[in-house]
Hints:
Layout: H1 2-30, H2 32-50, H3 53-79, H4 85-154, H5 167-173, H6 176-179, H7 181-184, H8 188-244, H9 246-252, H10 256-266, H11 271-286, E1 291-297, H12 299-306, H13 310-330, H14 337-348, E2 354-361, E3 367-375, E4 380-388, H15 391-398
Antiparallel strand pairs: 1-2, 2-3, 3-4
Amino acid sequence: MSSLSKRKRLDESGSGRSEKRTIEIKKNKTDPRHQDSRTAFYAEENEVLLRNPKRDLDMYKNACDEIRRCMAEIHHLKSSDAKNKAAEIEELRITVSLQFLVLKKLNRLSHLRCKKVRDKTSERRQKTDEYHLQLQNLLYEVMHLQKEITKCLEFKSKDEEIELVSVEEFFLKAPADISKLEITKADEHQLTLARLDWELEQRKRLSDKLKETQQSKESISGEIKTTQEQLESLQPKLTAILETTKPVQEYLNMPFDLKREQYAQARHLVDPLYVLFMQASAYQDACDKDLTVTIEGDIEAAKLLVSISNDDIEDEDDDSDQEETDKRKSKRRRKTVSDRMNQKKEKVLKKHPMSVILTIKCQDGSNLTLKFDYLLMLKIATVSIKTNFSKSETSGSSG
C-alpha cells in the first residue's frame, strides 16, 4: 500500500509540474513583453536585409575607437587632480555604455547575417546536389542510349545470313513486279527488300517442288518395299528349287552350290587375287575342264583386313618396330641382330590370310598345283608350285 501511495504522489507531482509548465508557456505567449521581443527580433531580421555590411563594419570600428578614447580619457581624468572630473567620468561612462549597446546590436545583426548566409548556402548546396543528381541521371541515360545505339549499330539481321542471288542475276531473272527497276536502282534498302521477296518466291517454289519429290520418293520407296517383300518371299522358293535340282547338277557336272560358295568367299580376297580367281574360273568354265580353281584360308581374318588399307598396315608395323626397339633398349638388348632381322623379315613377308589354288590335271594322271598368295607389305602376288606325278612315271624313273 505504501508503494502505491508513493507512485500516486509522484504521478500527481509530475502532472502538477507539467501543468505549471504549460501555464507558464501560455503566460509567456500572452505576455506583451515576450511579444515585443519577438517583433523586435523579426524587425532586426528585416533590418539586416536593408543595412549595408560595410557601413556596419565602419560603425563597429568607430564604436571601438570611441570606447578606447573614452577609456583613455577616464583613465586620464582619474589620474589627474581636476575638480569636476566625476561629472565628466560619468558622461564618458554613459557614452561607453551607449557604444556597448551599438556593439551588441551590431553583434546581433552579424549573427543574423551569418545565419542568413548559412541558410542561403545550405539552400544553394541543396540545389547543387539536386542539379548534380539530375546530371548523374542524365549521364546514366546518355550511357544507356549509347549502349542502345551500339547495339543497333552492331545488330545483325537474319537477312545477312541468307545467301541471296547476285544483283545482276536478280535483275535478269526476277519479274518486273518484284524487281521494280525505277525504285530499287536508286534505293539500296528497297533493293534488299526486293531481293528478299524474290528469295521468298524462289523458296516457296522449291518447297512445293520438294513436297512433290518427297511424295514421289514415298511412292517409289513403297514400290521398292513391295518388290523387296516379293523377292524375300521368292528366296525360300529358289532354295527349294536348288535343293530339288542337286541330282541334276551332279549328273550334268554343274555344281552351282559350290560355285556360289566360292563366289561368296572370293568377296574377301584382295583385288589381284580376286581378278585371278574370276578369270581362272571363267577359263575353267569355257575352255578347260581339267583346271580346278579353289580358295583356301581364314575368312574371319580376311574380314578384319578388309577395312584396313596397306598404308595403315605399314604405319602399324613402323610403330610396332619403334616400340620393340624401345623395349629392347630398356631390356639392355637381350636379342641379337639376327633375331631382329628375322622379325623384320617375317613382317615384310606377311601374307593375306586367303589364297587362290589352281590345280591342273595332265593326261598321264599327274597334277600341277599353283598356290597364289599376296604379300601385304610388298603389295605383290607370289606363287608356289607343287607337282604330283603318276605311279607309272615314278616307277619308270626308279628303274
